[in-house]
Amino acid sequence: MVLVVFLLAYLLRRKLDAANAWCAEPLWRSAFNRVGAGRSGNEASLWKGLVIILVPSLMLAAGEYYLHTVGWRMAAYPLEFLLMVLLMGAPGWRARLEVYSQSWARGDMQSALHHVMDSLPAEERGAATSPDEMHLALSRTLMVNVFERFFLVAFWYAVGGIAAAFFVRGIIALRDHWPQVAARPGFARLAEILNWLPSRLLSFTFGVAGDLAGWMKEGKRRLFDFSLRTNQLLMGAASAALTGYALDPERFSKIHPDEWADFGGRSLEAIRDLLNRSMLVWICILALLVIAGVR
Fold it and tell me: Given Cys at both, which of 53, 54, 142, 177 links 170, Cβ 3.0 to 4.6 Å?
């Protein structure tokens, strides 16, 4: 039943994303702003934010265990479905990427940057000083965003149930929206710990879903590099798994200078296709686990 819940939630979430509907980020932000005010001098503390996420996670785990004990486990699945729909999702990206690709095709790099600037992390905005760097920054942000809002939630839902999925997604939300900015680096470190195993599983999946030979040359050595952050790992693995220099704008411009106007759109399409194929691989793996009786 875990597979059915996830599949239904994933399909509905994709439709909602296409319609730019049901964005959960304002809900997280509003909830944290109401209860996240801290005392002066204690802005870097993580405990209050962790408790806010941990308490409902434990309640979900206890409720799931109770329903399983009394034989009413099926009663929890509608709630899990609704929560998964809210926990997953990256609405708004499609429209931004379409406008970005159109601006790139016209050669209007300033307009392209303008349309995606708000989507880039603060540390990436200053680095986007050239079309190449701008596109690489956008590609990193897109991959991490999709990873954390789909693959990460799916992994922990399959491993630990809805309580684990809620907790992990809550940590990501704390990193992005906790009102005490000084505490966000601490939440970011926790997020990197929770990302470690699923990000490496996705990195391996890139090889399976993409150019395995290219991934074996460059991508596999990154799997156990503890110094790599999630965005660096996924970017390197995707670059190795994609053909046609989809994530190497410098080499593409030298080899195919006449096709440079199409690079932005083609690169983003290649990334989306790789992520979609990777999700299909994960769904197949989950189906095999269900058939084997593991889940």
Answer: 53
